[in-house]
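[agent] plan:
  1. take the single chain provided in the ticket
  2. run structure prediction with default settings
  3. attach structure tokens to the ticket
  4. add a short note for the reviewer (M.T.)
[agent] executing step 1
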Amino acid sequence: MALIKFPTKTVNTDSVNPFVNSVFDNLFNDSFISDRLVTRVPAVNITETAEAFAIELAAPGLQKSDFKINVDKNIISIGVDKSDEAEVDEKLYSKKEYSYTSFTRSFTLPETIDYSNIDASYTDGILQVKIGKKEEAIVAKRLIEVK
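[agent] step 2 finished; step 3 output follows
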């Protein structure tokens, strides 16, 4: 298989129809479209200790009330659905975009979790969800004596 580099613009395309080229260049280089093409799912870190699982979700710029955390059987879903519509009285802007923040992350929970021991906190743009384990799932550590 050979890799071939195609030129971004040919020499005579602007002379054929410069209007079409400038429209497509503006359309695909517009920040509105390029921002929407990037996925908007926050990064997640999941850690496990002997007593609990911890989910850390990076979601800056939100408030505690924006999050909806649901547990259904063995799936935990963390979601946000927020829209910001700012009222501007003066109409001098040439471009205005509404801001919508919406995402849902779902994770499958193991059988060893304690459903009554799930806590969530939101500080400094990080949502921290702590999911405790059942007592029988916590492995007791002990020293084995060699005889």
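[agent] step 4 note for reviewer: Residues 43-84+100-136 form a domain with the Immunoglobulin-like fold (CATH 2.60.40.790).
[agent] ticket updated
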